[in-house]
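One record is set out below.
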Amino acid sequence: MILRGLADSGLSLRGGFNLEPGEECPPGPSGRPARAVLLVGNVGAAFWSHFVRWREQQAQAVANPLDSWSRMVIGAAAREAGARAVLPNDRPFAPFQQWAMRAEHLRPSPLGILMHPEFGLWHAYRGALLFDEPLEIETASQHPHPCDGCAEKPCLTACPVSAHGLHGFAYRQCLDHVRGDGHRCREEGCLDRNACPAGTDFRYPATTQRFFMEAFAA
């Protein structure tokens, strides 16, 4: 039932894990610390048409529309499964990046985005389902990190203002450029991210990337 409901919205289960007794975790549906985590997210832009259709059906503009849509979809899946839904923007913030690395054995790319061996940088985690009891969860396979075999690192040289590098992410530098002369960035998405050769079959279309860049610029 979880899989069917998520698939109808272009989302999918992205792995999970059981927590050991005593491990720190947000509360599950009962209010006690959760014992299992299932991550929910998108692979490529399969979710986009579902999100756009929902947005067009709203009687008035919705603030933070993607968060609102994700909360609706993942919340319904949680109710069906007897779980509690949490989203990355919920406070107190849950450690989604650490959860994702644990669930799918991922590591960050030079851009800070988690690199997937198949999907590259074109995936995201939209929420998680927390359960009171452990689940039977298949352990994810470990794969070589695509960045380890990438000598040229084009993701660090495509940005016209060098927003990514050994210094990390120059947030203000990037934001000023996107709001100013960065027309191509606003229309096509982050040039560094698009320069990555991994997972290009899953790259978000320009309309999807434009939505995220507009949200970033705002």
